[in-house]
Amino acid sequence: MVKASAPGKCILFGEHAVVYGQPAVACSINQRMVVELEEEHKFESWRLDGGILNFSKHPHIRFLKDQLWPDGEHSPLKIRIRGTVPTASGLGSSAALSVALVAALQQLKKEKVSAEAAGLLSHQAEAFAQGGKASPIDTTTSALGGFIVLSDKVEEALDHIGERTLQQGDETTTWQLHSFQAEIPEDTFLVIGNTGVHGSTSKQVAKVAKLLAEHPERYVEIEAIGSIARKGIEALRTGNMKLVGKAMTENHIVLRSLGVSSPDLEKLIKAAAPSSLGVKLTGSGGGGCMIALTKNPEQTVGAIEMEGGRAFISPFNSPGVRIETLSSQDDSVQ
Ligand code: MEV
User: Fold this and answer.
1) Using CA atoms in the order 159, 161, 166, 171, what is the torsion angle rounded to 10 degrees?
2) Do residues 159 and 272 both lie within one domain?
3) Per-residue pLDDT tens digits for 165-214
4) Binding-site residues, ligand 1, Cβ < 6 A
5) Residue range(s) defining the domain that contains residue 90
6) CB atoms within 10 A of CB 57
7) pLDDT band per the 50, 70, 90 thresholds, residue 42
8) Which of these, 2, 47, 63, 295, could form a disulfide with 125 (CB 3.0-4.6 Å)?
9) Which of 12, 201, 212, 221 has the most ligand 1 atoms within 8 A of CB, as the residue to mutate?
10) Contact predicate 136/177, CB 8 Å
11) Are residues 82 and 215 in the same domain?
12) How many domains is the chain partitioned into structurally?
């Protein structure tokens, strides 16, 4: 049996504006997806969590199987998935699952398991599963862990770690990937509050696209998010948590004005604000999760829960994909 895990992510700055080329910053969270794989020669079909695996319902698994065994059938595998990343909530559960699955499959094939390769292949799997559209921010953050910046150009102040290209019909999109070291004091945490309402990324992205098509003058808001993200990156690098928080709240105000917040998100954000340095929605909005940067994590969790949200504390710098062994539970992937 082999076992691998990978973290979820949250977007600190730049969601939606990244679709128009502005920088976005994500960081790994401590909630993880875990995949266990076992070869089952006595079975005729692949199994998922006890049932027969229907590949049409799990296109990313089919994609990975075809990539890793292009010559045809492999003896069926038994896959078990568990994890603590809430699904359809903007925390990258699907990407974390793909990343962990790639690492587990590579381990099973006795290939070198690398976070870089897991990031690349899982992005292709996600794009395949989503009909050709997926930015690499979730898969890269989940594979490598830490802080990741995606931009349409090389950001000079950051460590440039690579480039991803995706063919979407006639269109080729290229993203520049970066990492950086954030100086986060030990007493500062992220609290993630989940509205429990599933937002649809494609609907929210389409809503912003319609607004911009009808009111091109509102591109200034997209540019404003880009400058806030750059300010936020600088504050993270220099450890100025007050400024990070301020930039997060400013980012939220622009997202709200673009129409991607929701009454449920606003309720949790309002509750978390008094005990936090900064608050914002994270991901595509319309539901899903909000995040708070706080030195009073228990108080912030309590405030969110009082308003009916589910909340958890996530320290920063959760490790990226790793192979888990039953003995050590912690073999980080190089
Ligand atoms: C969703 O997590 C982030 C968005 O910016 C969409 C995208 O980047 O593809 C809303």
Assistant:
1) 40
2) no
3) 888 778 888 999 999 999 999 999 999 999 999 988 888 989 999 999 99
4) 11, 15-16, 18-19, 90, 135, 201, 205, 283-284
5) 2-181+318-332
6) 9
7) confident
8) 63
9) 201
10) yes
11) no
12) 2
